[in-house]
Amino acid sequence: MGQDQTKQQIEKGLHLYQSNQTEKALRVWMRVLEKSADPAGRFRVLGCLITAHAEMGRYKDMLKFAVVQIDTARELEDPDFLTESYLNLARSNEKLCEFQKTISYCKTCLNMQGTTVSLQLNGQVSLSMGNAFLGLSIFQKALECFEKALRYAHNNDDKMLECRVCCSLGNFYTQIKDYEKALFFPCKAAELVNDYGKGWSLKYRAMSQYHMAVAYRKLGRLADAMDCCEESMKIALQHGDRPLQALCLLCFADIHRSRRDVQTAFPRYDSSMSIMTEIGNRLGLIQVLLGVAKCWMIQKELDKALESIEKAQELAEGLGNKLGLLKLHCLCERIYRTKEQHRELRDHVVKFHECVEEMELYCGMCGESIGEKNNQLQALPCSHFFHLKCLQTDGTRGCPNCRRLSVKPGYV
């Protein structure tokens, strides 16, 4: 298959894919991969296969094609192709919750500087790295990466990237419980979709609606949460987007749990768990198991809650997800307090505080914890964040966290 024919077949596949004929598109692209003698064409078709498998939640296949793409990029001896292929490798590992590998591949991308295309990809690299740091609950570095990605988006007038970063920032602030910002950023993403997204994939709209639904639920606005989640789920079903379907089912279950309707919540958790397991989203599975444990606690089935917590703990330890561990210790503390098992209670209280210290989840000005309840937070330029009220009271005398770090042994 020659260069012109390769291009035609790739375009044919794209047309089929955009018409929701995904399996037909995949067959066309696989034929190109088998028959084309044009390395640049093969590189492009591998990019199409990587994107399609990502959206279907076939992350192991995504990773397999990303590895082949790196070999093709090396054959082409082009730094732009190599940067793009390493970014796809980073994204594949991010989806499979291999966060340390994601960070390592992102750093490789950032070290391959020099060309215009590489510089344009830096925003996407920063976003992927931020998501990985967030998966590891390294909040300062995650925020630093998201802010870099946002700067790249603004400098390159890349509204799609800005939309994706806003969704990640929504997730970031949901995790540290500043629900005002958790809602603000996905609302901003939804505005970008409305203003600029006429020719965009509907996944951007679905993504922003999902993150809005999560924030609305946290704020107790359950009807709004249900409306946004239903819209997101509708698009996810139309496009066969399995990862988003799993997240929406989790959100539906959480909404029903917030209404204390555990009988309706349980089947939705089960459906979400089934898809999360199938696609390999271990971070999502931790959230599902946390929700299931809370349902058992509502029903006062404490031993069943502990079973779910034990499974979630194994996953969180395997991923290095410290916030997940903190939440699990918090639930165990409540359970063992009710059961009056004081030795176990003390163990979990100690482990909870160790997690808080490790993640620096406390305000460096007042010393109170961050992420325990809904609070307005503000980040300084160094990406350390504090209670907004503390910053307003204290003024801007520099970052106390940075001052503390600077006098630690090894920094002097």
TrEMBL record:
<dbReference type="InterPro" id="IPR011990">
    <property type="entry name" value="TPR-like_helical_dom_sf"/>
</dbReference>
<keyword id="KW-0863">Zinc-finger</keyword>
<feature type="domain" description="RING-type">
    <location>
        <begin position="363"/>
        <end position="403"/>
    </location>
</feature>
<keyword id="KW-0802">TPR repeat</keyword>
<dbReference type="InterPro" id="IPR013083">
    <property type="entry name" value="Znf_RING/FYVE/PHD"/>
</dbReference>
<keyword id="KW-0206">Cytoskeleton</keyword>
<keyword id="KW-0597">Phosphoprotein</keyword>
<dbReference type="GO" id="GO:1900075">
    <property type="term" value="P:positive regulation of neuromuscular synaptic transmission"/>
</dbReference>
<comment type="similarity">
    <text>Belongs to the RAPsyn family.</text>
</comment>
<dbReference type="InterPro" id="IPR019734">
    <property type="entry name" value="TPR_rpt"/>
</dbReference>
<dbReference type="Pfam" id="PF13639">
    <property type="entry name" value="zf-RING_2"/>
</dbReference>
<keyword id="KW-0862">Zinc</keyword>
<keyword id="KW-0472">Membrane</keyword>
<keyword id="KW-1003">Cell membrane</keyword>
<dbReference type="InterPro" id="IPR052480">
    <property type="entry name" value="RAPsyn"/>
</dbReference>
<dbReference type="GO" id="GO:0007271">
    <property type="term" value="P:synaptic transmission, cholinergic"/>
</dbReference>
<dbReference type="InterPro" id="IPR001841">
    <property type="entry name" value="Znf_RING"/>
</dbReference>
<dbReference type="Pfam" id="PF13181">
    <property type="entry name" value="TPR_8"/>
</dbReference>
<dbReference type="GO" id="GO:0033130">
    <property type="term" value="F:acetylcholine receptor binding"/>
</dbReference>
<feature type="repeat" description="TPR">
    <location>
        <begin position="123"/>
        <end position="156"/>
    </location>
</feature>
<protein>
    <recommendedName>
        <fullName>43 kDa receptor-associated protein of the synapse</fullName>
    </recommendedName>
</protein>
<dbReference type="GO" id="GO:0008270">
    <property type="term" value="F:zinc ion binding"/>
</dbReference>
<dbReference type="GO" id="GO:0005856">
    <property type="term" value="C:cytoskeleton"/>
</dbReference>
<keyword id="KW-0677">Repeat</keyword>
<dbReference type="InterPro" id="IPR001237">
    <property type="entry name" value="Postsynaptic"/>
</dbReference>
<keyword id="KW-0479">Metal-binding</keyword>
<dbReference type="GO" id="GO:0043495">
    <property type="term" value="F:protein-membrane adaptor activity"/>
</dbReference>
<dbReference type="GO" id="GO:0031594">
    <property type="term" value="C:neuromuscular junction"/>
</dbReference>
<keyword id="KW-0770">Synapse</keyword>
<dbReference type="InterPro" id="IPR019568">
    <property type="entry name" value="Rapsyn_myristoylation/link_N"/>
</dbReference>
<keyword id="KW-0449">Lipoprotein</keyword>
<keyword id="KW-0519">Myristate</keyword>
<dbReference type="InterPro" id="IPR018293">
    <property type="entry name" value="Postsynaptic_CS"/>
</dbReference>
<dbReference type="Pfam" id="PF10579">
    <property type="entry name" value="Rapsyn_N"/>
</dbReference>
<comment type="function">
    <text>Postsynaptic protein required for clustering of nicotinic acetylcholine receptors (nAChRs) at the neuromuscular junction. It may link the receptor to the underlying postsynaptic cytoskeleton, possibly by direct association with actin or spectrin.</text>
</comment>
<keyword id="KW-0963">Cytoplasm</keyword>
<dbReference type="GO" id="GO:0045211">
    <property type="term" value="C:postsynaptic membrane"/>
</dbReference>
<dbReference type="GO" id="GO:0005737">
    <property type="term" value="C:cytoplasm"/>
</dbReference>
<keyword id="KW-0628">Postsynaptic cell membrane</keyword>
